[in-house]
Design a protein that fits this description.
Number of helices: 11
Number of domains: 2
Shape: globular
Protein name: CubicO group peptidase (Beta-lactamase class C family)
Number of strands: 17
Pfam families: Beta-lactamase
Organism: Novosphingobium marinum
Largest sheet: 8 strands, antiparallel
Oligomer: single chain
Order of helices and strands: HHEEEEHEEHHHHHEEEHEEHEEEEEEH
Helix content: 25-40%
InterPro entries: Beta-lactam-related, Beta-lactam/transpept-like, Diverse_Enzym_Activities, TAT_signal
Length: about 425
Amino acid sequence: MTIVQTETDRRAFVRGSLLAGLGVLAAPRLALARSDADLLPAVTEVIERWVGPGKFPGIVASLGLPGREAQYVARGSEGFTDPDPIGADSLFRIYSMTKPVTGMATMMLIAEGRLGLDQPLHEILPQYREMKVQATPDGSVTDVRPARTPITIRHLLTHTSGLGYTIIQKGPIRALMEEKGLVAGQIARIKLPGIFRGATVGSLKLFADRLADVPLVYEPGTKWSYSLGLDLLGRVIEVVGGTPFDRFLHERIFEPTGMTSTWFRVPRSQAHRLATNHAMFAGRLIPFDKPGNSIFLDEPAFPFGGSGLVSSPRDYDRFLRMLAGLGEIDGTRVMPAEAVRLGTSNLLPAGVEGPALMMPKSDFGAGGRVGIGEEAGIYGWAGAAGTVGMVDVSRGLRSSIFLQFMPPDALPILNEFQHALRSDVMRLAERNT
């Protein structure tokens, strides 16, 4: 995605779109909750208040108890001019919620002994053997020095590789990445001023090759900085897995998990299920990627492991439910329990702190935030168009919210959802004390 412009915008992006809603399922006794006809009264009130003329066309939220189908709250339609009711099977651009999926695919290969968590990247992609690091982050791209530490798989999973990201970096290095087509994501056919960053390079292999020629922003293993690491892992997965990255995800995760509505490219026959995406402009939500002509109906330049998936609330809940079941869902073993436990635990290199702009403080696992303290056991991430998905692995719970607007911190809906979800969860816990 390329939606963030200034330093202030970047900070707001991280605080708003990536923190909102995460880390609220800290209710130990909720796992014992009895069947409840209405799990989400506070969330329902928030959603009903935000859906309607001059607000959002539609919103979906969910809460899933251990081993049960999630309860969904859905209000409104898939677009201001789209009469189709929004619901658990509507399709949403989940952007960076793709990262935990790629992270878990990587954990599967690690569990199988085909990858090592601390294996140097150059053993799989030799072009990364001799990387350069900027002397000054976001400064000159010619004032560089040799990297002292090789990039590892752990670094790619946890955004500690030192790789840049066009939505984060500024100055010469962002310009260089855009020039090389290292813009890992897509937004709309419309080339919105200040958002369109140029054409993306045409294949995952070429993306990996060109990225190796770009200086690192930081020394590997020394700093958490949002990056292209999960996109690059797509190339690692297809090299090690011996099959195209998108096919690997379909065969190893989507199909056995029962995710029938998750794609990098939405089939034309399913376009009617796609919700409209909106941009916040002059205080109004302006539709800019509609289902009938969405860019997500086209084959992407390559499968973006950091931002490329479209999914439904029901499908993504199955992914979260599989993680809550430690790799198993409906009697099907999708991935080893130890792979889930490791991937949802703190994988940061020793001495490296988690996302610096996030409150409360957290660790980081395989492509997602990992809660600590009262939030221990919680893992999840969010997307740039207003989607959030999280799972409390220690208690078997999961929750999500799905809407479509950019940037997702432009309105306080996600923050209000977070507080309402906490209220509903604590109410259920108190009822079952």
